[in-house]
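Minimal example, chain plus magnesium ion.
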Amino acid sequence: MKEKSVLEMRGIQKSFPGVRALQGVDFTLCEGEIHALMGENGAGKSTLIKVLTGVYTKDEGQIFLKGKDEVNIHSPQDAQRLGISTVYQEITLCPNLSVAENMYIGRTEGALQNWKKMNADADKILQSLDIPAKASQQLASCSIAVQQMVAIARAVDMECKVLILDEPTSSLDDNEVAKLFKLMRDLKAKGVGIIFVTHFLDQVYEVCDKITVLRDGKLVGEYEIADLPRVKLVSKMLGKEMDDLSDIKSEAKAYEEKDASEYVFEAKNLQSNAGIKPFDFYIKKGEVNGFTGLLGSGRSECVRAIFGADTVIGGEVKVDGKSVKITKPIQAMKNGIAYLPEDRKLDGIVGDLSVRENIILALQVLKGFFKPFTKAEANKFAEEYIKLLGIKTASADTPIKSLSGGNQQKCILARWLLTKPEYLILDEPTRGIDVGTKVDIQKLVLKLASEGMSITFISSETDEMLRTCSRLIVMRDRKVVGELKGDELTQSMIMSTIAGGESEK
Ligand code: ADP
Ligand code: MG
């Protein structure tokens, strides 16, 4: 099958004062192809997309459509007219208008005047794309995932040949991601070329045909998905040799031999109101273990039960061998347990507060709000951890919301490390952050464990868990279905444990 290019970008240059954001980048997108654009934060992905969509004007280089016509794109309207559409992570539609209105607003004169026809047309498109929404429904009444699909439907209906999805899955659950992928595949079958920007490696391998990797504003290469195994992709993005990454693995392995024997935390028949089956669990001093399983399998619910973040409705818990009651986070904290939640936007950061205030928050809660730290004390804590974790911030006074996602995550990690926990629970600490910070956090986990901290680590990326954990608890359908350690710690054993065991029916 000969591939026809819908889009070619050649030798694209773009500089900002003091930064060469793109240095002669080539990018080719073919018809009916889903193409991942990958690279660490700052690699130039957004700049390339903004050049393509007319938000920025390129300094040099050429853009061709359909393999022949050179085009000039100076505004988003130019891009739209040429069939290049973008759906951003933040949905830019109007929630209080109907689905159909959102699909047609700002388009051909008259479309909005004939309501009947507009609704009928919209329903036809929604149906053809299998999008679970009605034209007349208010957009706000749709889930975020469906709203995103409506945004895509709008783009597609505008004769789009090139669809750009910039981190569309960050706020979706697994079910919604599956629906979005189906939609992407349908569009691909209709010949649309899709550029997919994401931090989730699993998703790249699930849905993409090709990968283009950028690093420091330069093209690293374009690869067929089958030719670029994950580890290689990561090393291309990082620009580091594989050795740096296998290093991490050997650290995790070495730990197992000097396994300590005491249980820092132990639970029997622990059950919460979040719909997980009662489960047994323990962790030893200096151990890194993890919960693995598909998204939605109940991993987070298990650790939330351990920390008392959900309502605990049954089970016995021991900390350092002593029976204790943990039904609220504050009780867990007083027993030396710390928990970094999955959704840092919802449960984690306090956006308007400074980096310093965010860092000292958990320690302040433990001490009691009536005994506030002095500014000097707070500063000392904040400065220490900003340095330790390499948090990139102008100062400790900077509002945390102005930091990048990876640096916000490090602040939350600092918050919990400051409480000097005996047992640290990290739920998706590396989700949606750049690869460099990911590796920093993995290394930190192993270092803390080597100093005696016990850590439970959850990540959707199994290779990350294999690198850090010496024992994995496998979940399926809200139930613990297996445990892997030693030689069993492989990608394929995880898969077969998730897939295997008792049958569902
Ligand atoms: P990515 O999307 O891969 O994270 P970007 O394209 O956003 O990377 O950024 C590439 C480089 O260009 C970074 O060094 C970034 O700081 C810089 N940059 C991006 N946009 C601007 C801008 N509007 N002004 C100045 N520098 C910018
Ligand atoms: Mg970007």
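Residues 14 and 58 are 5 Å apart (CA to CA). The pocket of magnesium ion (ligand 2) is lined by residues 45-46 (CB under 6 Å).
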